[in-house]
Amino acid sequence: MTTIKDTPEEWEIRATETPFVGNKTSVRTDDVVMPDGSVVHRDYQVHPGSVAVLALDEQDRVLLINQYRHPVRHKLWEIPAGLLDVPGENPLHAAQRELYEEAHVKAEDWRVLTDVYTTPGGCDEAVRIFLARGVSEAEGERFAVEHEETDMAYARVPVDELVRRILAGDVHNNCLVVGVLSLVAARGGDGLDALRPADADWPARPFAS
């Protein structure tokens, strides 16, 4: 019987170059040896990784933000998320920071909801999506936002309503869709308290405790 579990593997690379380096990401071109011995070019975006937070309040509502995303020319409803800006950064600490900075919210209970590669055919971005419960308003002044974040709107939407919106094709953000459907699946399975602890290993983006 086949074990359904992703496994690390790296095929031989004959040559590599980085034709573009941006502020946070870059583009790499590798010459990769295929199983038949041929060598092909593979272009992909090199990404530091991200974290996202599905913050669930006591009324079973998910905290959402609405933000302009220029590559897709849309304002998308999303859950709070951000880059792992520092190599080896603890993803839980990064998630707590993003929840505070984007929504001025803190949470008492944190779990790993799911880990995903967003677009593994063309980008090495790995995202860890956390479930945050026991949410409340953070203390102190709000974080100073800039650029697209200055135009953000906020909402708290019931989980059942979000599922309907997802299946109707009304919302498209990867972390929102994966996070909400994973939440529903976890509830229908072993329950939320059976989710992995917030400091669970993450081989895609190793970190210090």
From TrEMBL:
GO MF term (any one): hydrolase activity
Limits of the Nudix hydrolase domain: 45-179
InterPro entries: NUDIX_hydrolase-like_dom_sf, NUDIX_hydrolase_dom
Coiled coil: none
Keywords attached to this entry: Hydrolase
Lineage start: Bacteria, Bacillati, Actinomycetota, Actinomycetes, Kitasatosporales
Protein name: NUDIX hydrolase
Transmembrane spans: none
